[in-house]
């Protein structure tokens, strides 16, 4: 009998209210966790005030802006850092500035 290959996938990351993060929020979260926090085991979600909790600083915001601009082909560098306080805010700015994104799904 041939062996079956099982593919395990991680469940979608859940936000505070049990709602799964959308694609943009997940991409931002993963960039922060993997690149900016270098894989440290720090729990945060799309509503965590990242600057206030000192998970990121102003230099990290510049890196996030560069990530968003290159990933979604948009220009966001003229927005104040306060607009980058939460992943939800960041995702909203990206959606508002990209004609190819609707409903939080990268087209």
Structural description of this entry:
This protein is mainly α and 107 residues long. Helices cover 37% and strands 4% of the residues. The protein is built from 3 helices and 2 strands. The chain has helices spanning 23-36, 58-72, 87-97, and strands at 101-102, 105-106. The chain has a two-stranded antiparallel sheet with strand order 1-2. Strand 1 and strand 2 form a beta hairpin. Helix 1 packs across helix 2 and helix 1 packs across helix 3. The longest helix is centred in the middle third of the chain and has 15 residues, at 58-72. The radius of gyration is 16 Å and the shape is globular. Mean pLDDT is 79; it is low at 1-17.
Task: Give a brief description.
This protein has helices spanning 23-36, 58-72, 87-97; strands at residues 101-102, 105-106. With 107 residues, it is mostly helical.
Q: How are the SSEs placed, and which strands pair?
A:
Blueprint: H1 23-36, H2 58-72, H3 87-97, E1 101-102, E2 105-106
Antiparallel strand pairs: 1-2
What is the 3D form?
globular
Task: Tell me about the largest β-sheet.
Answer: 2 strands, antiparallel
Q: What's the alpha carbon Rg, rounded to whole Å?
A: 16 Å
Query: Level of helix content?
Result: 25-40%
What is the overall pLDDT average? 79
Number of strands: 2
What oligomeric state do these chains adopt?
single chain
**Which structural class do you get from the secondary structure elements?**
mainly alpha
H/E element string? HHHEE
The rounded distance between the terminal residues' Cα atoms is 42 Å
Q: Helical region count?
A: 3
- Main sheet: strand order: 1-2
Low-confidence stretches: 1-17
Per DSSP, what share of the residues sits in E-state strands of 2 or more residues?
under 5%
